[in-house]
Specification:
about 35% helix; 7-stranded antiparallel sheet; alpha+beta; homodimer; globular; disordered N terminus
Chain lengths: ~500, ~500
């Protein structure tokens, strides 16, 4: 592969006048769809990763696919960056605006166009909220499975951009496994449909490459999703362990026994102690770690599987097992997990939610290393995560008003991600790379691999106007980042052997 | 997207002398790995689609990844087409050689390198047979789920190229859902790894675009696959129906009831009558269609699910239901399905196995249309297929020694595929596009969509040397094919309204 990284993504220049851009957009869109005064653009300056902020030159809020096509053509002609935005709940800065570009908001694409019962699918616009799809499908006994924590607010378009996960993704798959087709406007203003209702579409699987492409390939205007039958019942086992290691092994044992839980989450002692006084979920305050393990299906299936899960946990050394006896109790058990982030807000002025993935067998080792890093960086960290997937979400607690705590939190986060790579994992589980993890991409991938990403990016977007300076690091950036890490002539990463 | 189709894929010229190519390859590979005499290259002239044949200029059979890198670099330098080949069992001509190119056979990459029990994965070379993976994993109670009919012979590398399916794919997914990582040599001779062991890898999902890319993007040298626990038990319900329509509705009802059978296959009366005298599977000769529906899991789960399946079938009007009472009987029921192709060979000198996918709700209508086409084309057709996926495999029976029967079979096949597109389906379910369906790609996709495919193809392979003239039709080809179909100024496809 030719080294395309050298040519760089960060070279976007805007040789247009702002006036020209506003005029062109105003000619193509109704006046209320083009915002350019600072008081109007300010609300769009960041997404859920509020550490990074940037005011866009213009915010465009199209109402029709034709308007999206027009925006793309204008931006291509004027060589203007475009950053698409769903609900702005993303956690890696994927929707952070470009200061010289257009922030293309899809909030007005909020219609559920069709629910088809025979094929159990829904056709929706990208601005529809994740949970709204399940609500609309509910009267038919169906729902949309991927359930990010932000599902009450996040949009399906953003889910497609980030390939979002959630508690249920261990059993039911990520966004990519639950989306059948997308309609996409390319940088040229063309409309293409990727995917099909068939199990495998002819030609290259561009749907999968589009899902999780973080706004780099095109703008979605319509999404066809799979709906699945709501299970008749669900129960949770809550199991306590006297060490994180024992809990980690129990996770492996459940999977090895041939079960795929509907959810399998771990919280360490710091997390349960942070959450319990706030939520009163009934967590075991003596445990070093607890697991929440859900089974869903028919009542007979659930009873059978819950019994097997409990047996595996006891065999793996659980010090306590408690099975939810009612739907209310099941929801109470989950309430602590789901409210871990707000709970963090009660014990710390700020928190930084990381997202990395490791092979399950390294859970105990990596959690031990994170604990030692707390001393190194002088910050506390709670762990609440998708244990079944090996997807960690360390919550680094800090105070942005204290000198250098932001910087230490960022460094702590970077060290965790690089540790994930070192044990054979990856720098993101479900939040995407965005702005946040672009340096770690240099650690994760070889130069040839980054070149392959960039070549595909350019196949869709030759001028590199779509979400520039994110996700794929330039050669210069990696060289710069490498220099920071070089110590006595060698790359210096967190030394796992120390832990 | 720029119209890249115009520049064409079919323009590959070979401005080298054959002698030059042989010398370069012989310098890089041991003598026994480079074949160029006609008696040596003849066995490689076609794959499982023997209607199309072409002798390659040279056959290269590398033994190491470094040799694959060398072959790629030589071919790039000499502007020589490369067609990769696994076991040669493909049914769409994907491994048919280019007459001026190198046929790169991966049969010597036949080692199972590692089976990891903690992560339930296997690392294998691309020439390993599909079934050999399950055999090697069997002592540990694990297996590799996708099971194409050719699994005893086909290679995992070929499965990756075609995104192969099989009876179990309804429940366990296609190849793309069961492969975690591939090592790939690019046309430049670089080695890249795509995918990861995590649920979602950072950056673009190039693993998914690579799986099913039919040899157009690179050559695989190593594959990491998921292994899953062998179910403790399996049973089949065999249900008879008095019409294809009733059987089609029963398929929809099973899925709508929230069950995902381990296999859900349909055979029409012509197929059962063709197979039964040969296999003696015990099929109901009075039925217009039969369904084979499998449940697997623990004995309790299977007993419960089989009872629910039977209830759904009776409700849907099954005239007879029979549940396998032993493993021997289960295998007997499947034997007829699995031997349908050999059985066709007993009643007809030749047969042509088609592969298209339709929304399940149109099963009855499309099967009715195919029946009427039998008269139109003067050929018989039996239907044996993955009903749960809506993936049809019409078997067109013909005699290649009779004048024009080959041509009529091809036209019959093309008409079936275009009918699939017309009802909202696709021109391939699991066999790939290859040579065979390249014209139908013009029917399936818009110009902008074909351009998107080609742009991604070129991102990996700018000179378009990897499997040229396949999968993605040129603009000229589509124009030519369109002309054949134009009738009174309009595109003429099979008229569904007639049926």
């Amino acid at each position: 592969m030719n080294s395309l990284v050298e040519t760089g993504l960060a070279q976007v220049q805007a040789p247009y006048s702002l006036q020209q851009l506003i005029e062109a957009l105003s000619a193509a869109l109704p006046a209320h769809c083009v915002l350019f005064r600072e008081e109007d653009t300010r609300p769009y300056e960041c997404d859920g990763l509020s550490l990074y902020r940037s005011l866009p030159a213009v915010v465009a809020l199209p109402e029709t696919e034709e308007q999206v096509q027009a925006i793309m053509r204008i931006c291509k002609r004027l060589n203007t960056p475009i950053v698409a935005r769903g609900a702005g709940t993303g956690l890696s800065g994927g929707a952070m605006p470009h200061s010289q570009g257009v922030l293309l908001g899809l909030s007005k694409f909020n219609r559920i166009k069709h629910i088809d019962l025979a094929s159990a699918t829904a056709i929706v616009e990208p601005g529809v909220r994740n949970l709204a799809i399940s609500e609309a499908a509910s009267p038919y006994g169906l729902y949309y499975a991927p359930d990010p924590s932000s599902q009450i607010a996040c949009s399906i378009g953003g889910n497609v951009a980030e390939n979002s996960g959630g508690v249920h993704c261990l059993k039911y798959g990520l966004t990519v496994h639950n989306v059948l087709r997308v309609r996409v406007v390319t940088i040229d203003g063309d409309v293409v449909e990727l995917g099909s209702e068939a199990p495998d579409a002819p030609g290259l699987d561009l749907l999968s490459v589009f899902v999780g492409s973080e706004g780099m390939l095109g703008v979605v205007t319509e999404v066809t999703v799979k709906l699945i039958p709501k299970p008749a019942c669900a129960q949770v086992v809550m199991a306590s362990f006297s060490s994180v290691e024992a809990a980690g092994n129990a996770v492996t044992q459940v999977i090895a026994a041939g079960m795929i839980p509907a959810g399998l989450e771990m919280m360490d002692r710091r997390a349960t102690h942070m959450v319990e006084p706030f939520v009163r979920a009934g967590y075991d305050m003596d445990a070093q770690a607890i697991l929440l393990c859900e089974s869903d299906g028919t009542p007979e299936e659930v009873a059978h599987e819950i019994a097997r899960m409990e047996a595996v946990f006891r065999e793996a050394g659980a010090t306590r097992c408690q099975v939810s006896t009612s739907e209310a109790e099941r929801l109470k058990f989950w309430a602590g997990r789901k409210n871990a982030f707000p709970a963090a807000g009660r014990v710390s002025p700020d928190y930084y939610c990381m997202d990395g993935t490791i092979p399950r067998r390294h859970l105990a080792r990596v959690l031990g290393a994170i604990e030692q890093m707390e001393d190194e960086f002088g910050l506390r960290c709670a762990n609440v995560f998708h244990a079944g997937d090996g997807n960690l979400h360390p919550l680094i607690l800090f105070d942005s008003n204290k000198p250098d705590e932001v910087e230490r939190a960022e460094k702590f986060g970077a060290a965790i991600l690089e540790l994930c790579v070192q044990v054979g994992g990856t720098v993101t589980g479900e939040h995407g790379v965005g702005m946040e993890k672009i340096n770690q991409m240099c650690v994760q991938f070889s130069r040839d691999e980054l070149d392959a990403f960039l070549a595909v990016k350019r196949a869709f977007d030759p001028p590199c106007l779509l979400n520039p300076e994110k996700v794929i690091p330039t050669l210069a950036r990696c060289a710069e980042y490498g220099k920071m890490h070089v110590h006595a002539g060698e790359l210096r990463f967190p030394d796992l052997a120390r832990f």
